[in-house]
Amino acid sequence: MDKLPVGVFTSVDAGLGVKFDVVRELGVKTIQLHAPKRESRTHEMAMNFLYKLKENDIKLTTVFLGFEGESYATIAEAAETVGLVPPKTRAARLIEAFEISDFAKLLGAASIGSHIGFVPHDRRSQEYASVVETVRSLCKYFKKKSQSLNLETGQESVESLLMFIDDVACDNLFVNFDPANLILYGIGNPLEALRKVGRRVRGVHCKDAVKTTGTPGVDWGREVPFGQGEVDAENFIKTLYQIGYQGALTIEREIPQEPERQRKEIGETVRLIEDIKTRVAKQLVT
Ligand code: MG
After folding, report:
1. Both ends of the chain: CA-CA distance in Å?
2. Structural domain contains residue 249
């Protein structure tokens, strides 16, 4: 497989990705998959999906954790409902994350991606210690299945994220880098952040955004097609080459309510990324 193969974020019945027929139509050869709903995560479903992957020569790189009750309606709501941080749902979601890992193993995915949630800021607090312990137990479980855990960027600065990763101290804990999230949440410059994360990047979302006209960190920025926002798509991909990243470039365009537009814009993004890769590869050898 070539370096930095293009991929697309995919959904079966949960999450904001495209359906498998769109993946096939786009002709991309890698996908990330949002974890299907619990009732769909059967052995039979896994075997059917695996067959479709093989038939179309598509590699599943990552399964993303997703849970009932998560909401991204506002940043405050995301903080209350997303991932493994919210205390009320933490224990039940931890068990579900183990089940998703089992399902991902059937599909041959080598990594699990996760929006872990808003990690508490006070490193000396009991709450912080508890989140560290939760993520550590996830990493241990995944390690037994030869899987890594890739934490999605966005909810905190990369400095905080890297500190958290150091505190968890597991050698299968890495980063899924989403440059648009840094803009959407108003917490930093994506290219500077990418250089800081460096070799810990094990997954990438090609997503773009413009910052909020309201209050950063309170009001959402606005997602736009990759290459049309403030990420600086060309330099983003160039920086990925420079930090030695060799994994997939997974396009994420979170507008499933407009499937035709989603399909069209992802198709345009596939071509844009291929063009950028060709240009950047030439620049880097000359
Ligand atoms: Mg993302």
Report:
1. 23
2. yes
